[in-house]
Amino acid sequence: YFQKQLFSSAAALFKELGESTNDPVHFSHLGLALYKQNDFPSAKDAYQRAVSMDDKRPQRFVSLAQVYRAMGQCNNAIITLKKALELEEKNLDFLFLLADLHLEAGQLDHCAVVIGPLDEVSPEDVDVKSLKKELKKMKAAEEEVKKP
Q1: CA-based diameter of the chain, in Å?
Q2: 54: left (phi over 0), alpha (psi -120 to 50) or beta
Q3: Residue 123 dihedral angles phi and psi, to the nearest 5°
Q4: Residue 8: pLDDT over 90
């Protein structure tokens, strides 16, 4: 169903499977199918259920964080993503997403702290450079606003 982009059929299947097996994998797949349909509140519920059943897989937290982001709830996304980082603290993809979320939330100082390790590991990475440039631009704009 996913390959054919039949997300509503996939959602129906995984909902039934999840309820009959109580397997967190099925709820994760249900969350993805619902996310693909832009049904973010239901996707959030499915991912939360998967996480409550098995909180040892960091990708489940990342998926839930992405749902929160899509719902415009950056602070919830940040909190959730930090749980993924507790499980895989050196995951550069997670760190990059966290920096991006802090930037999106206007938490520039937090963003700068997260960018540090990324810059140390991948100083020439195009995405890291872009993120640093955007942070610098936003900090400059913030300083302009503070001027009398």
Answers
A1: 63
A2: beta
A3: -65, -25
A4: no
**Backbone torsions φ then ψ of 147, nearest 5 degrees:** -70, 140
Q: Which residue type does 10 have?
A: A
Quick one: average pLDDT of 105-127? 90
Only one residue has tokens 């959602």, namely: 11
pTM of the predicted model, to two decimals? 0.87
103's tokens? 């930037």
Mean pLDDT on 96-101: 95
Token digits of residue 105:
């939330």
Query: Which runs of consecutive H residues, i.e. helices, occur in the chain?
Result: 7-21, 24-36, 40-53, 58-70, 74-87, 92-104, 108-121, 126-146
Contact call for residues 67 and 31 (beta carbons, < 8 A) = yes
- Whether the CB-CB separation of 42 and 34 falls below 8 Å is answered with yes
